Amino acid sequence: MLIMISKRIGFMVLTMLVVSILLFLLLEYSPxxxxxxxxxxxxxxxxxxxxxxxxxxFEPLWWRYGSWLGNFINGxxxxxxxxxxxxxxxxxxxxxxxxxxxxxxxxIMIPLSLILGVLAGMREGSRLDRIISVGSxxxxxxxEFASTVLLSAIFVFGLKWLPGTSSMTSGFEVKQMIxxxxxxxxxxxxxxxxMTRASMAEVMTTHYIRTAILKGLPYRxxxxxxxxxxxxxxxxxxxxxxxxxLLSGVIVVEFFFAYKGFGALLLEASLNQDxxxxxxxxxxxxxxxxASQTIADIGYTYLNPRIRFT
Amino acid sequence: MPDSVTPYDGPVxxxxxxxxxxxxxxxxxxxxxxxxxxxxxxxxxxxVGESGCGKSTVAMAIMRYMGSNGDIVSGTVKFKGRDMATLxxxxxxxxxGSEIAMIYQEPMAALNPSLTIGSQLIEVxxxxxxxxxxxxxxxAIAMLADVxxxxxxxxxxxxxxxxSGGQQQRVxxxxxxxxxPSLLLLDEPTTALDVTVEAGIVELxxxxxxxxxxxLLYISHNLGLMLEVCDRICVMYSGEVVEEGxxxxxxxxxxxxxxxxxxxxxxxxxxxxxxxxxxxxxGQLPLPHERPQGCYFGPRCDFxxxxxxxxxxxxxxxxxxxxDPAHRVxxxxxxxxxxxxxxPMGDAKPPAEIGETxxxxxxxQKYYEVRDTSFAAMISGKGVRQVxxxxxxxxxxxxxxxxxxVGESGCGKSTxxxxxxxxxxATDGEVRMNGIDIGGMPVQSRSPKQLGSLQMVFQNPNDTLNPSLTIGxxxxxxxxxxxxxxxxxxxxxxxxxxxDVVKLPRDFAIRKPRQLSGGQKQRIGIARAFAGNxxxxxxxxxxxxxxxxxxxxxxxxxxxxxxxxxxxLLFISHDLSAVRYLADRVVVMYLGMLVERGxxxxxxxxxxxxxxEALLSAVPIADPQVEKxxxxxxxxxxxxxxxPKGCPFSTRCQRRIGEICDNEPPPVQFNADRHGIACHIxxxxxxxxxxxxxxxxxxxxxxGATP
Lengths: 310, 707
Ligand SMILES: Nc1ncnc2c1ncn2[C@@H]1O[C@H](COP(=O)(O)OP(=O)(O)O)[C@@H](O)[C@H]1O
Ligand code: SF4
Ligand code: SF4
Ligand SMILES: [Mg+2]
What we know:
The complex is a heterodimer of chains A (about 300) and B (about 700).
Chain A: H1 2-28, H2 31-39, H3 45-54, H4 61-73, H5 87-122, H6 127-141, H7 144-158, H8 174-204, H9 207-214, H10 219-231, H11 233-256, H12 262-272, H13 275-303, H14 305-308
Chain B: E1 13-24, E2 27-39, E3 44-48, H1 55-62, E4 70-79, E5 82-83, H2 89-95, E6 100-103, H3 107-110, H4 117-128, H5 133-146, H6 152-156, H7 165-177, E7 183-187, H8 195-212, E8 215-219, H9 223-229, E9 232-237, E10 240-246, H10 247-252, H11 257-265, E11 317-318, E12 328-329, E13 357-371, H12 375-380, E14 384-398, E15 402-406, H13 413-421, E16 428-433, E17 436-437, H14 448-453, E18 454-457, H15 471-481, H16 488-501, H17 518-530, E19 536-540, H18 548-565, E20 568-573, H19 576-582, E21 585-590, E22 593-599, H20 600-603, H21 610-618, E23 626-628, H22 659-663, E24 668-672, E25 675-678, H23 683-687, E26 693-695
Parallel strand pairs in B: 3-8, 3-9, 6-7, 7-8, 15-20, 15-21, 18-19, 19-20
Antiparallel strand pairs in B: 1-2, 1-4, 4-5, 9-10, 10-12, 11-12, 13-14, 13-16, 16-17, 21-22, 22-25, 23-26, 24-25
Helix pairs in contact in B: 4-5, 5-7, 7-8, 8-21, 15-16, 17-18
């Protein structure tokens, strides 16, 4: 187990390194481009050369990569072109906001989709199963922007219960969180619920569930003790991958509700060619992806004694 | 006893006219029709029949557990006088697992993979007897000791996949017995296990059911096993009981043509592939919705009489012998059939001539290197260890000869086959095929001719058939690959010829594998193996996944083709009955070592290697006239990673003579020219051993045998 974990983490670091090299080559290979992006298209050639000189862009490529990476690891991502402040000053608060959004989404979605998935898979083909299955297919197939518009129309313009923007200009307000969280949940819960249902339904047909029933255990115990543990192994992995999905999934929602989160930052940065913000955001996104995958793998191994003890 | 308040002394189980159906998209499938049986306390009753005849369905119906698409159509199941159909879900739950318990065919699948064995065991007393966790653990540990599992405390913490198949089945048995049930349902409890393990489990079940006075309903397709475990037996065919009665009367005087047919399919000690070959029952079990009018067995019956057998459905008739009043049979003509001559037997065939040596194995070794990635192994530097899968194998096989390789699973039989086929390379020694050493020659470097001359038939034909190609195309490809024919017309001709040879209709050439039954697929496997006119065919457990009748047909087919083509056959099997029937010579392996070799007669009679002796004793024989000496091996096959230093068999040997067995590899002693035994016991001693099997020659007198 220990070896497996260290292997996984090693692999994760390696992936991050490879991605960072690719990213570096893509964005910083030709210094001229960087200067144009930082100083703008109308800057003079002299100014660009001067800037490049000052920032060490005439060093050999590998040296530049080394110091770039070193700065990254220390959290020095350079200055944002648009905001004129160090990138980290913009990045961390934005990331924190998205984490809050993600937390609430997960806190509601995971229990909801697991419970519905288990209920549906427990008695395959029952009416409850059909209702849940059809419901989750419909909600998943509605694109985020559509449900965003629809929910806004109902709650903001129709019932006037909720505010239409979530920019939190006057401090954090729970009311402003409701709509973005709702949109994300509606989009994603069906997927996790369907995975859980499939896994549960499969477990219910296994021989060991038959054994448990024919042992005379109360049905509750058959489900809670014998079925759930096996049925939740597969959804666990899926849930971990949802964290990754969330980072890109939030772009639409954050943009629409003017929520100052990571997704919105990424979007703004791309539109403005804010090169150092893009670099930082990309590395964060990759880190989250690789880390959640690693945790998923380790967790899967831990949950599955057939792999854990061999 | 957690029984009902008033002591109940009637039959434990009364089943009357039970009809069971499954409902599928194709409509209602009447899986079981009019099944009746009564089981007294402590009695054991057997259900036999080909797969698909409804045995498991009956067992599940007794538990009232028919799955989502099954249902009890009519009839009653009474357990201790109470009609199971009237019980509420809660009452049913209280009976399941406490008064009626079940043991399943695949123990690995029956145990929950992510719960410890302990937690799966203690639930039973906690649920049914309401005891505390500590008390339940105590009982579970005691029960694990009762089923002869070593180190019960540690086992409680283990997960199912960490123990062997035989041990898993013992755990399932322990689970079933924890609440001392009055009725135990066993659905093929040993079919997935090795013979020696089976023998241990069977003895355990007998011992414990006596101890707890449980009644048994024992399901199996193995008639020999039935004879050892049951008092009474029901022979089922296509959802009906066709014959029932006391075990002795059914085995000594079977009355139904189907029962006769079953006996004709199994290789009993007196069967002989030349003088008295097996005879398969022709045709196939009809699907439940395609049953014929009148007697369901009609289309396959040798005594079928039009106008009598194909009219109204056949009822059970009393056979009315004095010693077994319960003997009943579902046949219109049972009274007019000459039962002494009724056991079918194939026509005698000329024995094959054994020609010059084709295969010569000389000191062959195959070691595997395994990497141990555990922390301890890394620290101690023993990261790489050797598994001695085959150690110093030496024997010869001649043209047209059948050599059987026997031993428990894990003894290195399949590794040996892989080396011959070139899928693995021998580590040392020589494997000469027609004088050429092929032991180190991988498949890729063998010529088409070499490949074609050495072919294999597998246990599971699915593994080698391509599901998306027609049968004809697959056989044709093999013919082309081995350069037998190149002209497409000739290839097609040969494909059709091969289909004739394996006795399949020619239009099978255009079918896909999924349209074939298991037996038919195995025939295709044989056709493919013989496509390249091989000098030698290796058959790795070719019949062990098949039903008795299908197995008999495939066995006969294999011997006929072999005889005709003078092919050398290497028959790998753990089924000693089949081996005795088929083989000219036998090689017995244990833990990668060859422990005994000789002609079939030499190996099957004293002097034996102690392991051969134990194997022989473990095989159930479906003949009441056979007397067997019981030897039950204790313990498991040792790990090949860590074999005993001296004799490989020393950890389980029933004749172990002392320290010398543990410390020194035994020498090979020769009893006759090519009959060698690797054991420290002097040959004179081994010669004095009594035969394991004794056949009394005269049939017991009908009046004499009483239950
Ligand atoms: N769940 C099921 N749905 C439909 N048909 C089934 C089901 N289970 C068994 N059957 C059919 O019922 C018949 C009896 O099956 P089974 O009781 O399993 O026989 P056995 O145990 O003797 O092999 C077979 O024809 C089989 O195909
Ligand atoms: S009733 Fe007729 S067809 Fe059926 S088993 Fe008897 S003799 Fe054969
Ligand atoms: S050498 Fe010893 S342990 Fe091995 S088979 Fe002979 S008697 Fe048994
Ligand atoms: Mg069955």
